[in-house]
Amino acid sequence: MDSIDDVLVALRRVIRATDLHSKHLAKTTGLTTPQILLLQTIRDKSDVTIGELANDVSLSQATVTTILDRLEKRELVYRERSNEDKRKVHAHLTDAGVRILKDAPVPLQEHFTRQFTELQQWEQTMIIASLQRVAHMMDAQHIDAAPVLDIGSIDRQSTEVELDHPTPDQQHKSRDFYSN
């Protein structure tokens, strides 16, 4: 039974780390992880179309459009029709978008990506196979999921309101995560 407990504790730690980091990101920037990732992609690619953005972050164009709508309302991005092809729309950062990225914490998946790419190929393959098996064991292999370490719906608004008044349990979890 100890092995089962070890697996469940490890899974819970992954879920809690993701949850706590998402809340920290929302509290410090007012944005969700997918919103930050879209802003970073727009910054890195410059003059990027919605389709290219969707491809780069592995989300549907509809989801990207919904997220961009929210970012545009906050005046962090603006969209502009292409001069060459009026069917294409390009996304650009505003000055406020550039500033928020400058001060934003690094998304959790960047930490993970950096460490994962440093592993030997056989270790990467073993982790992928193990996680795919766990997903299957939890009957989750058919759940649609984007490669974004975040909780909740990808195109949701940030949880900023919840974070203004965290429960004692949320405060405790946040202290645990950021003190390690």
The topology string of helices and strands comes to: HHEHHEEHHHHH
DSSP E strands, number: 3
What coarse outline follows from CA principal-axis ratios? Answer: elongated
| Percent strand | 5-15%
Radius of gyration, Cα only, in angstroms? 18 Å
Description:
The chain has a single domain (2-164), classed as Orthogonal Bundle (Arc Repressor Mutant, subunit A). It starts with a helix and ends with a helix. Mean pLDDT is 81; it is low at 159-180. It is mainly α and 180 residues long. It contains 9 helices and 3 strands, in the order ααβααββααααα. The protein has a 3-stranded antiparallel β-sheet with strand order 1-3-2. It has helices spanning 2-29, 33-45, 50-57, 61-73, 95-103, 108-117, 121-137, 160-164, 168-179, and strands spanning 48-49, 77-81, 89-93.
Give the gist of this structure.
The chain is 64% helix and 7% strand. The protein has helices spanning 2-29, 33-45, 50-57, 61-73, 95-103, 108-117, 121-137, 160-164, 168-179, and strands at 48-49, 77-81, 89-93.
Element layout with pairings:
Elements: H1 2-29, H2 33-45, E1 48-49, H3 50-57, H4 61-73, E2 77-81, E3 89-93, H5 95-103, H6 108-117, H7 121-137, H8 160-164, H9 168-179
Antiparallel strand pairs: 1-3, 2-3
Helix pairs in contact: 1-9, 3-4
